[in-house]
Amino acid sequence: MTDNVTDQQLVARAQKGDSAAFDLLVRKYQHKIIGLIGRYVNDQAEVQDVAQEAFIKAYRALGKFRSESAFYTWIYRIAINTAKNHLVSKGRRPPGSDLDIMDAEVVDASGRLSDMETPEAALARDQLEKAVFDAIDALPEDLKTAITLREFEGLSYEDIASIMQCPVGTVRSRIFRARDFVDQRIAPLMTGKDDAH
């Protein structure tokens, strides 16, 4: 809660023309915003540009920000929209860039186990990961955004609802449908091991 109070105080100061207060907000959230945009935009140089553009848009719109939602949910929404607009302007749709990010997280999370992993198990894991990310990439945009914010960013349903500007029930439904879609897409890989029954 102290972070929200601090954010609100910084926003209030920035709205009164204190650019140093906005700089503090940028420093606080820049890594999260860059990580979020990196899930949509593959080129690291473009990620930096899109993040900068998102913060510029936020700065220009700061006068319209009402503290009805947390600052970070507001800036997340701006970042997602800026990333999507960037991809549309380039004639692209979001790439499956999460795979590289998740590979690093999997290695960090299970480093000791990966030393004992057999080549067959490593291949099966890689195929499963690829199937999961391909399934997420194939989702409609609203489902993809909801599942990305929940599973990769770890945001609460309430925060996602604020970012996506929809009721919490809609967020739950979208995440459920996204998980169900992914489960159906990876089911053949999972049942392939049990075909002997």
Textual characterization of the structure:
- With 197 residues, the protein is mostly helical.
- The protein has two domains: 88 residues, RNA polymerase sigma factor, region 2, helix turn helix motif (Rna Polymerase Sigma Factor, Chain: A); 94 residues, Arc Repressor Mutant, subunit A (Orthogonal Bundle), CATH 1.10.10.10.
- The protein contains ten helices and no strands.
- The longest helix is centred in the last third of the chain and has 24 residues.
- About 12% of the residues have low confidence.
Can you give keywords for this protein?
197 residues; RNA_pol_sigma-70_dom; 78% helix; Rna Polymerase Sigma Factor, Chain: A; elongated; mainly alpha; 2 domains; RNA_pol_sigma70_r4_t2; Arc Repressor Mutant, subunit A
Short description:
With 197 residues, this protein is mainly α. The protein has helices spanning 2-15, 19-38, 44-61, 71-89, 98-109, 111-116, 119-138, 141-152, 157-164, 168-191. The chain has two domains: 2-89, Rna Polymerase Sigma Factor, Chain: A, CATH 1.10.1740; 98-191, Arc Repressor Mutant, subunit A (Orthogonal Bundle), CATH 1.10.10.
